[in-house]
Design brief:
The chain is α+β, with helices and mostly antiparallel strands. The chain has a domain at about 5-225: Lambda Exonuclease, Chain A (Alpha-Beta Complex). The protein is built from ten helices and five strands. A hairpin with a 5-residue loop joins strand 2 (about 120-135) and strand 3. The longest helix has 26 residues, at about 265-290. The radius of gyration is 30 Å and the shape is globular. About 25% of the residues are buried. The structure holds iron/sulfur cluster. Iron/sulfur cluster binds near residues 17, 21 and 239. Iron/sulfur cluster (SF4) binds near residues 14, 245, 249 and 252.
């Protein structure tokens, strides 16, 4: 089982089942990504010194091949992507010695391995080295890992995503002995701006990269969890909105059917409306259930215990180590309210039973008043 930042992001942004869809090649609506995809292809071609026009023609006629193959693309989006790439390469000449679509692949022990045997693998848009000065004025080698983005909002916020972290860890594991720092760069093709974050490979920087590496392992382990039928769990809900597989995902369709909704956006609207209604009703429910709320405190129902003979009060047993009742509305509290007849004056059933016997109706208090 091989993991990539793309599948990890699907897992985090949507749900585990989305990773199954990705691996099965379930069709997804990628229209909104076409411009960015084309820009990547053209920048790769420029970096390799390949002619551009045949690539443009083939993207329109047949699409692209490879890991994330796609069918024929809309001509207007292809032309827009091409123009973005050409404008970028004019403003930002390709650095000498840069590697395009550089492939990192690691096995389960984070040792470099073949692409098809990797537990974790990723392709980086551009990797290159440059000489920088450290704080003491010494020359150091800086490894720059650049990711092209074509969305306007991709700025500094894109410097700390799981994908960037995975790229930094990959660079560090591959060249950590030869370099003094790693720069994670986001190149926004539309803004024609580069955003960078430098990680010096000192004690603190290495500790950070080690932590990111452990975080990646946690996410990969989580993605590997499957249900008895071999599929990853589906979590249909608000995150179906925006999921690229919503149109063909069975659990998402079941969700729509259960709620009589037309699409995932409709489910999200209903969810928001339900949350708003709950918030509006909560003060009224709190007031109606206040008398039972102590029964659902964090310490559980208060059960008085006997105090010392002759001196005790049933409340003394609360004086040490007790946790004050949480003032919150819970389903248990609301259920007890309904069970006991809110507003009727009736106590909820079993409210004074001891923990040791369900038959006695004598509270476990040493001295009844
Ligand atoms: S549509 Fe919903 S349930 Fe299906 S994969 Fe996407 S987030 Fe998960």
């Amino acid at each position: 089982m091989s993991h990539r930042p793309t599948t990890m992001q699907l897992y985090l942004d949507h749900c585990p089942r989305a990773v199954d869809h990705y691996e099965r090649g379930t069709p997804q609506n990628r229209d909104i990504f076409t411009v960015g995809t084309v820009a990547h292809e053209i920048l790769f071609a420029i970096g390799q010194g390949m002619p551009i026009e045949p690539i443009v023609a083939s993207l329109i006629a047949t699409g692209r091949t490879g890991d994330d193959s796609e069918g024929p693309m809309r001509p207007d989006a292809v032309f827009e992507g091409r123009d973005l790439a050409l404008a970028w390469s004019e403003a930002h000449p390709i650095p000498d010695g840069a590697f395009f679509e550089y492939a990192f692949a690691f096995d389960g022990d984070w040792k470099p391995c073949a692409w098809d045997q990797a537990r974790f693998r990723t392709r980086v848009d551009v990797v290159h080295r440059r000489t920088e000065e450290d704080e003491d004025g010494h020359d150091i080698q800086d490894l720059v890992i650049t990711d092209y983005k074509s969305a306007w909002p991709a700025t500094e916020t894109e410097l700390d995503t799981l994908q960037r972290r995975a790229q930094a860890v990959s660079g560090w594991l591959s060249w950590g002995d030869e370099i003094g720092s790693i720069t994670i760069a986001v190149a926004n093709l539309r803004r024609r701006q580069v955003f960078e974050r430098v990680i010096p490979l000192d004690e603190e920087g290495v500790a950070l990269l080690q932590q990111w590496q452990r975080d990646l392992e946690v996410v990969m382990d989580a993605i590997d969890v499957r249900e008895p039928d071999g599929q990853r769990p589906a979590r249909p809900g608000a995150r179906c909105g925006g999921c690229p597989y919503a149109a063909s995902c069975e659990p998402a369709r079941d969700l729509l059917a259960r709620h009589g909704a037309s699409d995932t956006a409709d489910v999200v609207r209903r969810y928001i409306a339900a949350r708003a209604l709950a918030a509006e009703l909560e003060p009224h429910i709190r007031s109606a259930t206040a008398r039972w709320s102590w029964m659902t405190s964090r310490s559980g129902p208060f059960r008085p215990r006997p105090g010392p003979p002759g001196r005790g009060s049933c409340l003394r047993s609360r004086s040490h180590g007790s946790v004050p009742p949480a003032s919150r509305l819970t389903r248990g509290c609301a259920a007890r309210c309904l069970d006991g007849g809110a507003g009727s004056g009736a106590r909820p059933s079993r409210w004074w039973r001891s923990s040791g016997s369900s038959s006695t109706k004598t509270p476990r208090c040493g001295r009844r008043g």
